[in-house]
Design a protein that fits this description.
This protein is α/β, with parallel strands linked by helices. It contains ten helices and eight strands. Helix 1 runs parallel beside helix 2.
Length: 201
Amino acid sequence: MDLDPFYPIVDSSNWIDRLVPLGIKLVQLRIKDASEETLRREIATSQATCRKYGCQLIVNDHWRLAVDLGCDYVHLGQEDLADADLASIRRAGLRLGVSTHDGAELDAALSVKPDYVALGPVFPTSSKALSWKPQGLEKIEGWKRKIGDLPLVAIGGITLERSRDVLQSGANSVAIISDVTKNSTPDQRTLDWIAETQDWR
């Protein structure tokens, strides 16, 4: 699985419609609280936009809808991983990403043969309430040595200014939320991210 080094995470199809045409090649749709009808519409709309522009769409958590709508990728947290029907996900041909925060979670993720693992939070973050301490760049280096060729996604508190250090430490892709969606000029920030990560593309 080839992951683009720039991996924004957004919470609506409106963001995808706005940012993907700028040149994004990998994006996650993460919607936590919505009705199934709304989720279905948001995923379908996002998928149509991503296919139009040649962008990979990763659906967070909602694996049943991702299977039903013929999506290509799903991302699961540890709790979702325990509850998901992994056989159905694989039969549908979806690729799988898994969140990890410590060694035990990494072992759990590797046991299901994911297509990538995410490590976080690398730095302090306000995007999500977490009990985990920041992992730091050294953890990226160690985990990359452990997982070898399996793609590693770094997430948590990463800004454009920190992205080069994160990628040089061994991450294949940098997942970001606030640094784009809470930026005063998200469109320009997206273009800056695409340019800054070009050396890893």
